[in-house]
Amino acid sequence: MKITTLGIWGGYPKANSATSSFLIEHDGFHCLFDCGSGVLASLQNYIALDSLDAVVISHYHADHIADIGSLQYSRLIQYYLGHPSPPLPIYGHTLDEEQFTKLSYKEQTTAIELAAHQPITIGPFTVTACPTVHPVYCLALKFTVGNQSAVFTADTEWTDALIPFATDADILFSEANLYEEHIGISPGHLAGSQAGTLAEQAGVKQLILTHLPHHGEIQDILHEAKKTFAGPVELAEAGKVYTL
Fold it and tell me: Chain centroid to CA 49: how far?
């Protein structure tokens, strides 16, 4: 499994960057995890848009779906130019029916339900979902190939449910949008120390911090995560590739 970081930011992208998102590949299959602002521009540094085989969406906040419309339109343009592709499957939960319906577009993309605790096969991956704690319904995702697994928390505040979900993962991509002083004040997100605690209690092999804030010194978030997780931990970096 090969995982490329496309964006690292929460809320909105900094200049020439993208919100938190990842390209997950195995055996020639290309899956995009979340599709927020700036993601399509970043993605095209690695593959052509029509090379995508699937998209998986954690939830329907704008920083995770903002580029879906552009992706759909890119495929429609290719159709008009005489280069049609099979409908692209976009996986998302159905608890927001209006947003889920929008994942289907003019036979260019097709919405497919992603349900908690119901493993689904997406290309070579077995994908499992776990609800998080966020102002809107959101799913953490685990991608497994053989005995290798990568877990993405998506957006969440602390929940014990993520410990068994992430247990023994080879790599954990955890959101870390808060500084320590904001724990309990800003809902729906984790601080660095909490991401580290999750990684430690789940026994993961490696921790990557993503969905980072625009203010403050983000190295402080990394420092706090290192206090609570004994394994290797780093801040997500656009363009960095992780191979399992």
Answer: 18
Tokens of 147: 């005995």
pTM attached to this predicted model:
0.97
What domain range includes position 152?
Answer: 2-243
Digit-coded pLDDT (tens) for 138-167: 999 999 999 999 999 999 999 999 999 999
Whether residue 159 contacts residue 166, with contact meaning beta carbons closer than 8 Å, is answered with no
* CATH number reported for the structural domain that contains residue 193 in this entry: 3.60.15.10
Q: What pLDDT score does 186 carry?
A: 87
Distance in angstroms (rounded) separating the CA atoms of residues 84 and 163: 43
CA distance linking residue 229 with residue 53, whole number of Å:
35
What are the E-state strand segments in 114-164? 120-122, 125-131, 139-145, 148-152
